[in-house]
């Protein structure tokens, strides 16, 4: 049986799989943080959310909302617990994005430019202090 990309994206994981994925993600992020810091760097978490949630007319927001919040909370909570800077770009992206800034669920070239400008603004804010 062939499953379409859309079916894969909207599939709901059983709770047990969600928890296993969250646990594995946290372990990987801890390893990354330790490695980066051991080399004198700093891990910064940037959450893009659904990248223009409000400008994606084709998204079934009711269906995706639980996953959206699960992912955001996982990254945010991990960042807070591990003293990592966390930036939620969700609202910034929603303010700027139009429907054409996406191509099949991904950013268009212009969409990536918008996101890079938002990230640059945050980086300048970090280092101007």
Description:
The chain has one domain. The chain is mostly helical. The protein contains five helices and four strands, in the order ααβαβαββα. The protein has a two-stranded parallel sheet. The longest helix is centred in the N-terminal third of the chain and has 24 residues, at 15-38. Strand 3 (102-103) and strand 4 (106-107) form a beta hairpin. Helices cover 60% and strands 9% of the residues. The model has no long low-confidence stretch (mean pLDDT 79). It has helices at residues 5-10, 15-38, 61-81, 90-96, 109-127; strands at 44-47, 85-88, 102-103, 106-107.
Averaged pLDDT, please? 79
The count of strands amounts to 4
> What would you call the structural class?
mainly alpha
Helix content: 55-70%
Which geometry do the CA atoms define?
A: globular
Determine the number of helices (DSSP H or I, runs of at least 4 residues). 5
How far apart the termini lie comes to: 55 Å
Q: Major sheet: order of its strands? A: 1-2
List the helices and strands and how they pair.
Elements: H1 5-10, H2 15-38, E1 44-47, H3 61-81, E2 85-88, H4 90-96, E3 102-103, E4 106-107, H5 109-127
Parallel strand pairs: 1-2
Antiparallel strand pairs: 3-4
Quick description:
The protein is 60% helix and 9% strand. By secondary structure, it is mainly α. The termini are far apart.
Which structural traits does this protein have?
two-stranded parallel sheet; 9% strand; 60% helix; mainly alpha; 5 helices; 129 residues
């Amino acid at each position: 049986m062939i499953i379409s990309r859309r079916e894969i994206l909207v599939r709901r994981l059983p709770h047990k799989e969600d928890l296993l994925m969250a646990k594995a993600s946290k372990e990987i992020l801890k390893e990354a943080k330790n490695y980066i810091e051991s080399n004198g760097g700093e891990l910064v978490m940037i959450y893009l959310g659904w990248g223009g949630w409000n400008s994606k007319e084709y998204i079934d927001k009711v269906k995706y909302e639980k996953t959206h919040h699960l992912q955001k909370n996982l990254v945010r909570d991990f960042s807070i617990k591990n003293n990592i800077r966390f930036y939620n770009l969700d609202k910034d992206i929603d303010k700027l994005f139009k429907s054409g800034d996406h191509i099949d669920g991904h950013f268009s070239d212009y969409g990536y430019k918008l996101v890079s400008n938002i990230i640059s603004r945050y980086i300048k804010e970090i280092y101007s202090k």
